[in-house]
Write a structure and sequence with these properties.
The protein is an alpha/beta fold and 318 residues long. It has 12 helices and 10 strands. Strands 3-2-1-4-5-6-10-7 form an 8-stranded mixed β-sheet, with helices on both faces. Strands 8-9 form a two-stranded antiparallel ribbon.
């Protein structure tokens, strides 16, 4: 964990909020000693782009940070029809308690242009990309400006699965499934990758005591996080018979703050794009049975109690 004397890591959060995306954004904005959010880029995913761009601004205002630029990006996958997840997140993406519409404006610049410009402007190796949704914006930026690829410090993303297999099809996790061509391009780009698959996020469950912990903060943000997780978990509890819902996306930010909470393996991960049966599958060579070169630190475990302690403490700062 970085201390207050270290320089905060510059990050861009690429996101499709989503209640768990919202919690991830809050965690980042509550942690300025460790991460400096250069901007937030919205992508179509959990809900269409108009809503994800709106939701990102709602969350920034909730956190008291209307100065964070929010850029709208790609409104559809590279080669597919958009698949959304209102069945999980509700029709707004942030269903649960009603929040006022944002007053902060959307940035004029397209998200892809913002990503390209920022990576060209900042010193090489100083910007970390944090995708929490489909990888359309990132892949499009890499395709339009290949010169930025070696300038990326690292990509820490939520997506994929191996032992937990799929949550939108039997074989595929939602973020990768929505735009497998984008995921294939990003995984093949040669940027250092850290992947938070369902294998780890399904170990970070919002149990009743955890939700009570958010509510006990006695703050507007704490109440909102509790209400979002209350709403969000109904789907997973019914589907998996689990005691709570996985907080997928906050794992990305928690890794930047306290990487010691997580463990995994540096392995090869390939993305299936052609098969109708397994489209969007992250084929993870966990056991090292191929000679394909490792391209991702694929996270498999998390200290769930440590994760929720960090999350609750930071949410309490807002």
């Amino acid at each position: 964990m970085q201390d207050g004397s270290a320089t905060p890591r510059n990050i861009i959060i690429d996101t499709d909020p989503g209640q768990d995306d919202a919690v991830a954004i809050l965690l980042a904005l509550a942690s300025p000693n460790e991460v400096n959010v250069l901007g937030i880029t919205a992508v179509a995913g959990n809900v269409p782009l108009e809503l994800t761009a709106k939701n990102a601004r709602i969350v920034c205002e909730l956190a008291g940070h209307p100065e964070i630029p929010v850029h709208a990006g790609c409104d559809r996958p590279i080669a597919r029809t958009l698949v959304t997840a209102e069945h999980v997140h509700g029709k707004t993406g942030l269903d649960g308690p009603v929040l006022p519409d944002p007053t902060m404006p959307l940035a004029d610049q397209h998200a892809v242009a913002f990503i390209i410009e920022t990576l060209r402007r900042e010193p090489e190796g100083t910007v970390t990309l944090c995708p929490l949704g489909p990888l359309t914006n990132i892949a499009t930026a890499f395709a339009e400006a290949p010169d930025i690829i070696p300038r990326v410090a690292e990509i820490v993303l939520m997506g994929g699965a191996y032992f937990e297999v799929g949550n939108i099809t039997p074989a595929a996790e939602f973020n990768i499934y929505v735009d497998p061509e984008a995921a294939k391009a990003v995984f093949a780009a040669g940027v250092p990758l850290v992947v938070m698959p369902l294998d780890v996020t399904h170990k970070a469950l919002t149990t009743a005591p955890h939700i009570a912990g958010f509510r006990a903060l006695g703050t507007r943000v704490g109440d909102m996080v509790a209400a979002w997780t209350d709403f969000f978990e109904r789907f997973d509890k019914e589907k998996y018979g689990s005691e709570g819902a996985p907080l997928h996306d906050p794992c990305v930010i928690a890794y930047l703050l306290q990487p010691e909470l997580f463990s995994g393996r540096l392995i090869n991960v390939e993305i299936e794009v052609d098969s109708p049966l397994t489209r969007g599958m992250t084929v993870a060579d966990w056991w090292g049975v191929t000679d394909r070169a490792p391209n991702a630190l694929f996270i498999g475990d998390v200290d769930a109690e440590g994760f929720f302690a960090l999350l609750t403490e930071r949410i309490g700062r807002l």
